[in-house]
Amino acid sequence: MMRKQYGNHFLIFAFFALHLLPMFEVLLGSSSIYYIYTYNNIHKNLTIGDILLLLIILLGVLLENYADKQLAEFRCHRKKSREHKFSVLSTGLWKYSRHPNYLGEIIFWWGLFFLGYSHNAPLWCALGPLLITLMMYFGSIPMS
């Protein structure tokens, strides 16, 4: 679909919009953790708040993983049973949220930021999770 839409310019579009921009967002998203390990010794002063934030980060990873697993199983079942291709997954986590996998990813990135911020990472480190959240909301969700 995008190939048709962008024609001869698809490779340029794909390089910048589909590869370079998300890579830049991940770099920004990781900046608070880089800041911790470069300028702070988190392993020497791990607090209860750090442990809670690490659990939130783990929750985000598990949520994304489990939701992706449910989606893969649904697609496999739909393909085998030849159900209507526009059927919607509405069981498991997908019963409560239209995009639990994206929610898990957003929780992960914001958890990384708040972990870094709690160890004096600069506020500009929030640009990463903010851009990733905006990409999910305005880019990934409308495409699905």
Automatic annotation (TrEMBL):
GO cellular component assignments: membrane
Pfam families linked to this entry: DUF1295
InterPro entries xref list: UstE-like (IPR010721)
Alphabetic keyword roster: Membrane, Transmembrane, Transmembrane helix
The organism's place on the tree of life at top rank: Eukaryota
Residues annotated as transmembrane: 45-63
Protein known as: Steroid 5-alpha reductase C-terminal domain-containing protein
Organism, as annotated: Adineta steineri
Phylogenetic lineage: Eukaryota, Metazoa, Spiralia, Gnathifera, Rotifera
